[in-house]
Write a structure and sequence with these properties.
Elements (H helix, E strand, L loop, with lengths): L6 E5 L20 E2 L2 E2 H8 L5 E6 L3 H10 L3 E4 L5 H13 L3 E6 L2 E4 L3 H8 L7 E6 L4 E2 L7 E3 L5 E3 L4 E9 L1 H4 L8 H11 L2 E5 L3 E4 L5 H10 L1
Parallel strand pairs: 1-4, 1-6, 4-5, 8-13, 9-14
Antiparallel strand pairs: 2-3, 6-12, 7-14, 8-12, 10-11
Helix pairs in contact: 3-6
Length: about 220
Amino acid sequence: MRNSPDTVMFFCAGRGTRMRALTESQPKPMINVAGRPLVDHAIDAMDGVNRRFANLHYQPEMLEKHLSYAGIETVFEEELLETGGGLKNALPVLDRDTVFTMNTDAVWKGPKPAQFLAQSWNPDRMDGLLLLVPKSHAIGHKGTGDFTSAPDGQIARGPGDVYSGLQILKTKYVKAITDSYFSLNVVWDDLLARGTLFGAVFPGQWCDVGHPDAILLAETLLKD
């Protein structure tokens, strides 16, 4: 994966409240899908990226033990910092100018997501690159889509393709935010204004495991 980052940050700190009773005794990334924790499906999707980190907050002990077996270093958050704040908090440990970030509540079918995204990464013209999924391939997702794409891959907000939870991002724009608690949407808005936020459309299928009913959908996708 020439010119692509060698480091990924897995987002594992959230409480997973939409999963209701399933997260009372375990963090969301440890929910079982097709015989494996959700986070393991995310790890598989990042095949080829060797430096791997995760942020922890809610019920961290179980996740920390599990991730240590996979060689993933963890960064604990004393309080929840949202996606942007969580990444900013971990940047001294990540020690990279450009990183992948990966949500841990989805499963995939098709090409290896990290390798596919890296093929479209062009640091000379991009400050961020999001992996998008056509609405018709976004199983379990209840929204109308997040971004529309121009022919050159530059994106704008609006109903269209769905953000998959995987991106490549230059970290200087995260460092520039003075707040400690913020969403990565703040960074995206900056890059959208600069014209340097792009999207790559995933040719496979993706299932958003953000609510209990989606577990069966994800297992059916993986089985089929």
